[in-house]
Design goal:
Blueprint (H helix, E strand, L loop, with lengths): L2 H8 L3 H10 L5 H11 L3 H8 L19 H11 L6 H11 L20 H14 L6 H10 L20 H16 L6 H17 L29 H10 L9 H9 L29 H14 L46
């Protein structure tokens, strides 16, 4: 990593500095722990904690509004890397886990749906395993996610209401959740979780992280945009970082996504914030179309993990044709699936 980029990253929020020290530098465990402890007291972490309501929640309900609810605020705090022992985060996670149990299992925040949402349970397991690894209701979530895996190896939040193909959005959320559970002190159904993760990863790889397995075309050009926080939405950088966190090694089927990521690097070695997801936010961490420390940090650790090796791929696209904010003709190469065919991007319902 060039010295100027490292210094620029370290000048950012303490949560960035912590993850740079942890993932990209040969920092001592003492230094890494010291930076992590500061997240609760400084910068973005402190600001998010200060938005908590007197009743222990954020926003108006467990899931609304997006993105200031308890659910998404805890997911964001986990993404920052705040200490898992942070008391208010533990209390918030416990509040959500104590919500009602759905008809077929899982945790159900919503009174208007029959079954617990698979994507929501994947995200919940992600941060609840981190903040409350000994909570007695975590196995309920694990059971539901394992039982909800589809025959193609992935997951879809609408699998119980007619969906026949897994969703990249839902699958990456569940993989993050199951991975977080294993990294905590989870001891429940470990072998089955590992098997589910492996088949879920294979589902992503079969789609080369962004392509239709039927046509080889880009599923949805929005999946090529680099956003942070990702919320529930899928994109190639989130997928690559998920596979890195699961310690997945290089596979040739990752190369299309790696090529897109490399093509988005600016001349000075940074990555831009391209398109944050619309919704209510506590505050903006970074500005759109400006160099992003979050995207630069995540891109560098992904490329470091996978070696940033350029291999031949069976269906490469010219780098210039991939979507970027400055490439307005890229839509020609970013096709949707034909009308009437089940979309692999599975755009979720409006309340998602």
């Amino acid at each position: 990593m060039p010295t100027n980029i490292r210094e620029w990253l370290l000048e950012g929020d303490v949560s960035i500095a912590y993850q740079v020290a942890r993932d990209l530098m040969d920092a001592s465990p003492t230094k890494i722990a010291s930076l992590q402890r500061k997240i609760e007291r400084q910068g973005w972490g402190r600001r998010l904690l200060a938005c908590r309501n007197p009743d222990g929640n954020w926003g108006k309900s467990p899931y609304q509004p997006k993105w200031t609810s308890t659910h998404y605020t805890l997911l964001e705090l986990k993404d920052l890397g705040i200490c898992p022992e942070t008391a208010v985060c533990q209390e918030g996670a416990a509040l959500l886990l104590n919500s009602r149990i759905g008809k077929a299992g899982g945790i159900d925040y919503f009174v208007s749906v029959e079954y617990s949402d698979v994507c929501v349970n994947g995200m919940l397991l992600n941060f609840a395993s981190y903040f409350t690894p000994q909570h007695p209701r975590l196995p309920i979530v694990v059971d539901y996610l394992l039982d909800s895996q589809m025959s193609d190896g992935g997951w879809n939040c609408e699998s119980r209401t007619g969906a026949t193909h897994s969703s990249l959005h839902t699958t990456v959320s569940v993989l993050e959740g199951l991975g977080s559970y294993l990294k905590s002190v989870g001891t429940f159904r470990i072998l089955e979780i590992r098997a589910a993760i492996n088949t879920g990863i294979e589902f992503l790889l079969r789609h080369r992280l962004c392509r239709s397995h039927r046509t080889g075309e880009i599923i949805d050009r929005r999946m090529l945009r680099l956003s942070f926080p990702p919320r529930w939405r899928y994109d190639i950088l989130r997928a690559l970082d998920c596979l890195r966190s699961l310690d997945r090694q290089y596979d040739q089927r990752l190369q299309d996504a790696i090529d897109v990521l490399i093509s988005k690097r600016t001349k000075d070695g940074r990555w831009m914030l391209e398109s944050p997801h619309k919704g209510h936010v506590h505050f903006q961490m970074e500005k759109v179309n400006r160099p992003s420390r979050w995207n630069t940090l995540r891109a560098l650790r992904v490329l470091t993990h996978f070696g940033s090796i350029r291999h031949q791929t069976p269906h490469p696209l010219p780098i210039a044709t991939y979507y970027s904010p400055s490439n307005h003709n890229a839509h020609k190469y970013c096709h949707r699936l034909p009308a009437g065919r089940a979309s692999e991007s599975n755009a979720h319902r409006s309340w998602r």
